[in-house]
Amino acid sequence: MKDRFFRNYFLSRFLFDFVFAYAIYNLFFNINGLSVLQISLLLAWWALNAMLFEVPSGALADKWSRRKMLTIAPLLKAICFCLWFLAKGNFWVYGLGFSFWALGSAFTSGTAEAMLYDHLAFLKQEKKYEKYLGKKKFYFYLALGVSIIFGGFIAHYKISWAIIFSVIPLLLSSFFAWFIKEEKKTLSTGEIKYFQHIKIALKELRTDRVLAFFMVYLVGISLFSGVEEYDQLYYKLIGLPVFAFGIIGFCWSLFNAFGSRLAHKIKNKCFIFWLMPLLGFILLSLVALIVKVQAIIFLLLAYFLYSPVRVLIESKIQQRIKTQSRATITSLSSFLIELSGVTLAPIFGLIGKSFGLPAIYFGFALLLLFLSFWTLFNKRKFI
Questions:
Q1: 2 part of a folded domain
Q2: 218 φ, ψ to 5°?
Q3: pLDDT for the residue 122
Q4: For the segment 54-92, what is each residue's pLDDT rounded down to a tens digit?
Q5: In a domain, 8, yes or no
Q6: How far, in Å, CA of 201 to CA of 343, rounded?
């Protein structure tokens, strides 16, 4: 039974992000007439939708069936790519597609992590959560890598095919999610109504300052993932052919995958939480200054450093949570991440319009520098 859970769980998670469109969707928008500012507004719209859906979906996952939510999520995401395929350059249809994608992502955000933790709690293996979360991230990045490299080659032949073919793995993701065995939720103390989960989550954040600190750190480090949205435009700027987008994306995924897989081996190295943002600042600054093909290696190294830290801080949050509203609290962290995305995407879009695309990377670098110093002054909380 244990093997059946992990088989269906990891297959569903793998296929949810086995999306050919990831290799080229911002390029797809650009080719269909959208500017960098318009693309940034679409990304902000996606983040706004995700932010609005996050906490309600997390509370729903604590109240309702997490298995059913993981089954519905890929179907919602599939609608996005169907709409994009039919959009023919229509900005508003692209925005509607992002709304469905955001809702599908919100259905999995918090839900998937809480289900994994509860299953390990059922097996009395909570202390191995970093290892299994790292494995989940490994499959996530592996799915990205394989689908991106194929997506790049598909798009080289016909770019719209990379969009519509992305629907097939999502249907399979929904299929495997339906067969995941769902255990009882950790620390169940009786019936809790939907809105009570939100109240419980907010109260726990107010009373546990270390948990709140971890949440703020997660938001800060997750801002770094926002730079990925501009990578395809950066590749175009330095003159890479479209098929090479997939190759670079595959390398990006491998760097992230192995970084995530190895995270549990450095979980007691507290200095990594301030050192990684500092190194990220240096690497992104080089990306902004060089603006040549050689700069890609600095970008990949920055992603490699980011991935294990993300796993470790998410694990610290899960282990710190004491109430039954686990998915709600996890979704609250995603809510804060999306809130920052809503705020920053238009700002960076304007920076790119005014000073050029490389300035966006330098802006993200400065955010990482601030996070590094803030963490260094509060390093005792990580001990």
A1: no
A2: -60, -40
A3: 75
A4: 667 666 766 777 888 889 999 999 999 999 999 988 999
A5: no
A6: 24
Answer whether residue 193 shows pLDDT above 90.
Answer: no
Q: What is the identity of the amino acid at 277?
A: P
Neighbour tally for 68: CB within 10 Å: 17
Cα-Cα-Cα-Cα dihedral sign, residues 254, 258, 261, 267 = negative
Name the residue among 327, 366, 322 with its Cα closest to residue 110: 327
Taking the CA atoms of 26, 29, 34 and 40 in sequence, report the sign of the dihedral they define: negative
- What HEC string does 336-367 produce? HHHHHHHHHHHHHHHHHHHHCHHHHHHHHHHH
Looking at residue 184, the DSSP 8-state letter turns out to be P
Q: Which residues, in sequence order, are CB contacts of 343 under 8 Å at separation 6+?
A: none
Instruction: Label residue 189 by pLDDT band (50, 70, 90).
Output: very low
Q: By residue range, what is the domain housing residue 41?
A: 15-179+194-382
- Give the phi and the psi of residue 5 in degrees, each rounded to 5: -60, -55
Is 1 strand, coil or helix? coil
Q: Roughly how many angstroms between the first and final C-alpha of the chain, as a whole number? A: 36
- Look up the CATH number of the domain holding residue 233: 1.20.1250.20
Verdict on whether the full-model pTM lies above 0.85? no
- The DSSP secondary-structure symbol of 323 reads S
**Residues listed for the chain:** 383
**Confidence at 190, pLDDT banded by 50, 70, 90:** very low
In-domain check, residue 67: yes
Q: Which residue has the tokens 């992502």?
A: 105
Residue whose structure tokens are 């997939």: 246
Q: How many structural domains compose the chain?
A: 1
The CA R_g of the chain, rounded to the nearest whole Å, is 20
Tokens of 370: 């601030």
Reported as a single tens digit per residue, the pLDDT across 115-156 is 777 778 777 777 777 777 777 778 887 887 888 888 888 888
